[in-house]
């Protein structure tokens, strides 16, 4: 047993075995063969990119995953299997990263157990077989965290950490909130001011490339995506329940065309994606400031929903899915 602890191969073998079994049970499903909702939108964006076209919806999605998916479609065709196989490999690698990070922070035994738990986590292998950015996001975040710990021990690179940070932001910009912590972590270590500057410079490169892409496409100054404002508005308006992405007056069945029309009606003029994003941020803050007590109660409700044991489904009922494809 001691020989197994610290070796990545038990974690890799278990993670791959679980994912292959799930692939066999899920591979013939209509959800697998004909992606819908968010997965369908990512598929459509990637398909357009593989034919040299820009889908307008790309502006409202973090660009890294649809660009990667589009590259796969361009090189190998728009098949249902290959992207999932790649994501299975990435998800397995993430299990090893969890193991290594756990070893670094809590010791070999804790790291090994963390890797095993990650390999067996139902949500992890569920997302590995969906055309959604979750697997890529988690992998890049873990890879960035691992590199940050390596920098702290003197064997990592601030340049590499910054590049991973920037790529992680292009997969899902939530990582931007961690920027001050990451910069302080590097600055206070052996790398000092020079390491901090290198980190900032390399982190800015992917974001600058994304900004240039959006400017060239006519979307305006959008560093990552223009969906932050509409998500903020939907999550904080007076009828928000903290669970569902229901648009006031439309419900759950809204799309980006409805998002555009609603914002342009408020502005009484045509808007590019950056302008649409600003309108929603403005309206969202108006909803918050109109009734701060209501908003505080909504935040408490969201916190309770986050920390309870119920997994809130989004595109699909996770409990039905687990029962159907177990």
Keywords:
single chain; 326 residues; mainly alpha; 16 helices; 69% helix; globular
Tell me what the structure shows.
The chain has about 325 residues and is mostly helical. About 70% of the residues lie in helices and about 0% in strands. It contains 16 helices and no strands. The protein is globular.
Structural class: mainly alpha
Main sheet: strands, sense, barrel: none
Mean pLDDT: 89
* Computed Rg: 21 Å
Share of residues in strands: under 5%
Output the helix-strand order. Answer: HHHHHHHHHHHHHHHH
Overall morphology: globular
Count helical runs.
Answer: 16
| Helix residue percentage | 55-70%
Short description:
The chain has 16 helices and no strands. It is mostly helical. The chain is globular.
Topology:
Elements: H1 9-26, H2 30-33, H3 37-50, H4 64-76, H5 81-106, H6 108-120, H7 122-128, H8 134-152, H9 158-171, H10 179-188, H11 192-216, H12 228-236, H13 256-267, H14 273-290, H15 292-307, H16 318-324
């Amino acid at each position: 047993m001691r020989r197994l602890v610290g070796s990545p191969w038990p974690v890799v073998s278990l993670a791959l075995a679980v994912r292959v079994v799930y692939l066999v049970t899920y591979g013939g499903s209509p959800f697998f063969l004909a992606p819908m909702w968010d997965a369908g939108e990512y598929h459509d964006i990637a398909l357009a990119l593989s034919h040299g076209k820009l889908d307008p919806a790309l502006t409202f999605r973090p660009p890294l995953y649809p660009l990667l998916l589009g590259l796969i479609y361009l090189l190998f065709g728009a098949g249902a299997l290959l992207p999932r196989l790649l994501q299975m490999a990435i998800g397995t690698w993430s299990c090893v990263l969890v193991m290594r990070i756990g070893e670094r922070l809590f010791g070999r035994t804790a790291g090994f157990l963390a890797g095993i738990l990650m390999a067996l986590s139902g949500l992890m292998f569920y997302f590995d077989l969906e055309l959604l950015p979750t697997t890529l996001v988690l992998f890049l975040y873990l890879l960035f965290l691992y590199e940050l710990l390596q920098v702290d021990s003197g064997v990592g690179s601030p340049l590499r950490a910054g590049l991973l940070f920037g790529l992680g932001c292009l997969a899902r910009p939530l990582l931007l909130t961690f920027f001050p912590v990451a910069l302080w972590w590097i600055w206070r270590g052996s790398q000092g001011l020079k390491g901090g500057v290198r980190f900032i410079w390399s982190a800015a490169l992917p974001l600058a490339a994304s900004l240039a892409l959006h400017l060239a496409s006519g979307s305006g100054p959008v560093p990552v995506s223009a969906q932050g404002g509409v998500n903020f508005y939907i999550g904080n308006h007076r009828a928000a329940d903290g669970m569902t992405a229901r648009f006031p007056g439309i419900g759950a069945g809204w799309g980006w065309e409805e998002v555009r029309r609603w914002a342009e009606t408020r502005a009484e003029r045509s808007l590019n994606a950056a302008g649409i994003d600003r309108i929603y941020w403005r309206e969202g803050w108006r909803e918050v400031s109109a009734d701060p007590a209501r908003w505080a109660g909504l935040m408490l409700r969201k916190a309770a929903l986050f920390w309870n044991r119920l997994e809130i489904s989004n595109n699909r009922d996770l409990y039905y899915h687990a029962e159907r494809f177990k």
